[in-house]
Design goal:
The protein has helices spanning about 5-40, 45-74. With about 70 residues, it is mainly alpha-helical. It is elongated and about 65 Å long. The model has no long low-confidence stretch (mean pLDDT about 90).
């Protein structure tokens, strides 16, 4: 049995980078929602911008997960 170590390392590296990117994007969404709550409590006008950015981050996370599922299924 031969193991292609280069391919295994490549898959590991790509998986690690994508995982860190998705966690970072989700974290930015959570931070955006917390900033929206803070801005709306203080009466600032940036609450809508923070909420829109947070929703965009969550949408990108959902799109990445859907793409990954489509790669597995198809």
């Amino acid at each position: 049995m031969n193991i292609d170590w280069a391919a295994l390392g490549s898959v590991f590296g790509v998986s690690l980078v994508v995982t860190v990117a998705l966690v970072g994007l989700f974290t930015l969404g959570i931070i955006g929602l917390s900033k929206q709550e803070t801005a709306s409590a203080s009466g600032g006008g940036s609450a809508a911008l923070a909420r829109t950015g947070a929703y965009a981050c969550f949408a990108l996370c959902a799109a990445a997960v859907a793409y990954g599922i489509s790669l597995i299924v198809v």
